[in-house]
Amino acid sequence: MGSNSSRISDLPKNEYLKKLSGTESVSENDPFWNQLLSFSFPAPTSSTELKLLEEATISVCKSLVENNPRTGNLAALIKVFLSRTKELKLSAECQNHIFIWQTHNALFIICCLLKIFICEMSEEELQLHFTYEEKSPGSYSSDSEDLLEELLCCLMQLITDIPLLDITYEISVEAISTMVVFLSCQLFHKEVLRQSISHKYLMRGPCLPYTSKLVKTLLYNFIRQEKPPPLGSHVFPQQSDGGGLLYGLASGVATGLWTVFTLGGVGSKAAASPELPSPLANQSLLLLLVLANLTDAPDAPNPYRQAIMSFKNTQDSSSFPSSIPHAFQINFNSLYTALCEQQTSDQATLLLYTLLHQNSNVRTYMLARTDMENLVLPILEILYHVEERNSHHVYMALIILLILTEDDGFNRSIHEVILKNITWYSERVLTEISLGSLLILVVIRTIQYNMTRTRDKYLHTNCLAALANMSAQFRSLHQYAAQRIISYTCRHLRRYVYVLDKLYFPHSHCSTLQHCFSALSDNGEELLSLTCSHILRSYAASLFSLLSKKHNKVLEQATQSLRGSVSSSDVPPPDYAQDLNVIEEVIRMMLEIINSCLTNSLHHNPNLVYALLYKRDLFEQFQTHPSFEDIMQNIDLVITFFSSRLLQAGAELSVERVLEIIKQGVVALPKDRLKGEVTAGTSPSPCLFTPG
């Protein structure tokens, strides 16, 4: 590029790039390299600029791919970089800006070329280009040196050993980004790579001893969130020969070079993203996640995953078992704080999921925290704004909740944390609510969104599994949370009757039934008159009488009949049988959640009993349903018991008086009358879905 290159449009005709990619071999000791590396070219800061850079240099790259096997110029450039890194630490201590600047530029060119090479050729061809023999450049004999492994080891040393200063910030980002590019080989292969060059170099040989130190450094980079130095804080003076060394180190890479080395932002939304506060932390996190998810080698497990699975708290004085390799310690309090603060990015959420799922030390520490709201609230906010998040982010947030709710201590403690003024929850003003009740509200909202929009079976199954995990520990449910549990169940009960009617009687026009469903508001509240409720109950009972042990066969026959009756139409009939199965599954899980709460913590939840009594007409309709008879026994018992006590208390009772009667009745209700278990094999179990 040289000292005069400052614009992308200048690159195709740049004399230094032409020489690098030409047919003439350039020795690593040639003064040409100092000229090439003395450029003030700002790094791309967006996908658009990256595309322009690639288009401008395509002719240069093609020439280099063609000529490099004979000239060995790429290997010579790498040799220049490697020789400079040996003095990098001393240069940082001596504040040698120019030396670090040129070394950074060398790595920048190597990284850009590496990206092109990985996109255009196989791993075997890539290794050929990185092979170097000083005596005869381009003649790749068995004695030639493979520089790729040496380059990777050098990058790992640079990341872990070079002190992070203002003048070394950008080259640290560059080194991490180059490793991310190197590991991008998998993107260009359909099959999983198990014997790739990444396994060859990173999982054995001289790179292996750096495993724990690299993982620890990347984690601390994420934790510290170091910001780049101020723009223009390092301006190199003009040289007397007009070399033009004006170059702000922070102006390029620090403000967005990470986009270049995540291959143009693949996997993120195509929109102008805000400037990252810490490119170093972001790139460190990306590299850490890529390393953790490398497949195991055929003869050895992934050492980086082993390191992530086994590291401990700095306050843990116990010794590591000899069977655990690559172990290290890190400050868990700082890690926890960083994870709580960074959950707006899906990368940070994936790291949290990885640590909770794979590192038992981290999971135990987090579950023992007394400020879990700092972690749970950002996760709930992700689910609450499900429309704005990508599906992977939502899944990871949900699975994190699922992992947390597998712990009974967590399920108890979240109901003891009282929150005030949750501003991002807009459905209703929540001036004071427990963390547990808020979690219930957000999860039910997520289920409802999924059932009406995305209709993803895994999503609603995992949501319901999280509620099922919590249900036995429900404590002092907020009245709105209790109301939403019951009203959401009722919504599906009504929908079930409607779909069943359409399935059995596709040509009927029951005005009463249509009126009942047209009278439902969007949030699931019942607006039916008492007369309509009695008619609907009678109609539902007649529908349920059609069901028997041959339930599925009856549905199948009804579906076939429906399809046959509209075969002449071009419009495919609705799949009511499939809808009915999904609705029935949701109803059963919701009923089991209610039943679990009533069985294990009835005395802690008068608001749930109140909401159940308010909707008792609809629940009573399903007492005779063959699929719900077992689970309805406890619910029916609670409804009957408390209804009789309310009847004895007289009419026109206030809300406060009803709740008082419920609290008194809870003490009087013998616990042994409630069945502790439902039919074997029907309890909902978590369906752990690992985001891909």
UniProtKB/TrEMBL annotation:
Record key words, sorted: Lipoprotein, Myristate
Gene Ontology cellular-component annotations: Golgi apparatus
GO biological process terms, semicolon-separated: Golgi organization
Pfam families: Dymeclin
Keyword Lipoprotein: yes
Family from the record: Belongs to the dymeclin family.
Protein name per the record: Dymeclin
The species this protein was found in: Heterocephalus glaber (Naked mole rat)
Gene that this sequence comes from: Dym
